[in-house]
Fold this protein.
Amino acid sequence: DLSALGQGIKNSAELAVKTANKNNEVDGVTFKLQALDDAAQAATGQQNATKFIADDKVLGAVGPLNSDVGQSMQKVFADANMVQVSPANTNPELTQGKDWQSGKKARLYDTYFRTSTTDAIQGPYAAKYMYEEEGLKSVFVIDDKKTYGAGLAGTFATEFKKLGGKVVGSDHINPEDRDFSSVASKVAKSKADFVYYGGEYPAGAPLASQIKNAGAKIPTVGGDALFSGEYIKLAKKNAEGDFASSVGAPLDTLDTAKEFMKNYKAEGYENTWEAYGGYAYDSAWAIIQAVKAVAEKNDGKLPTDAKDARKQVTEAMQSVKFSGVTGEVGF
């Protein structure tokens, strides 16, 4: 269901690989993209991570899309000392530990990096926007119980209440469902000014549509996983007035993204880059730059031992800095 976002990530990472090879970015090294689909399932993601580390030629991984899948892959890569850079995981736990909200921030894995922002910023941003800019003071909060959705809804609700807003109701849905009539009628009865949904567009769009059809002509607001043209295709006219935050400025507003967009179109990809394309390109480019740093440190050659090569690439990633599609990138 989320394939539009996934294809955007895959194509953009592939474009980075093609560009590196065309420009001979790392002398003597030819990059190759191996794409595996996790179907947004944590267990499949873990199997994919295991497959990657079993191949001595794999020096780094771009992805995944979903935070819960990312969580399932982290330890596998860490045990193999292999770098992982996600363009899309936004749950703060992945880089700051489960107690991040209490101020006890701890980096769990030295191998895990990301180019996207986190829900510690995205949730409160939406709360401030709706309360201060839109002047809406009451909300019904819904999430899909997944790592991303529940986490995002939580950071939103905490900030909204802090600002003086009122959470008049809350509920959870199963992201596999498409009939949300009971939740929709609860929302209509609540007289909320708007709905905040922590989850992804395949469930979010029909949920928003059914809420409007139940008589609550109010906006549904969500995070980056609603930020897709697919949301509008699914909700049709009922998408009107809804809001989605993005993990950064849309690419068509950035001068730094012009060349990427031109080259992406020239490749003739069937799908657009969607919400995370620029971040995926930058994630792949970060790995390429880390590989370059290791080769330069070793007289133009990569270590022949895969374990050593992976360890050195992970260490080099910490110092990688470049001007990317999405702006200045560095860790």
Q: What stands out?
A: The CA atoms of residues 212 and 218 lie 7 Å apart.
